[in-house]
Design a protein that fits this description.
Order of helices and strands: HEEEEE
Strand order of the largest sheet: 4-3-2-1-5
Distance between the termini: 36 Å
Shape: globular
Length: 85
């Protein structure tokens, strides 16, 4: 799945992920109403496995079930001033 992403995103000129791949913010909403937000991230969907693979620049990768999970790529600039605490 990542190999196919690299071929498409980098026109076949990359064999690894780079910082350029982590420009987005990904929002996930789950069937129970809970949600997760990942900055500096992108995601891939495997219909075959019914999974969402989410890759982050600083927090590794995560796999979530596709069933009833809503995933959205957000504009990073809208969250640049967001701070917790």
């Amino acid at each position: 799945m990542v190999d196919a992403y690299l071929q498409e995103a980098h026109a076949g000129n990359a064999t690894r992920l780079s910082t350029q791949d982590f420009r987005g913010t990904v929002s996930l909403r789950f069937p129970d109403g809970s949600f997760a937000l990942f900055r500096h991230a992108f995601y891939l969907v495997s219909e075959e496995l019914s999974e969402i693979a989410l890759f982050t620049e600083h927090c590794g990768y995560h796999v979530f079930p596709r069933y009833d999970t809503q995933v959205e790529m957000l504009e990073t600039t809208s969250l640049e001033d967001f701070r917790v605490g």
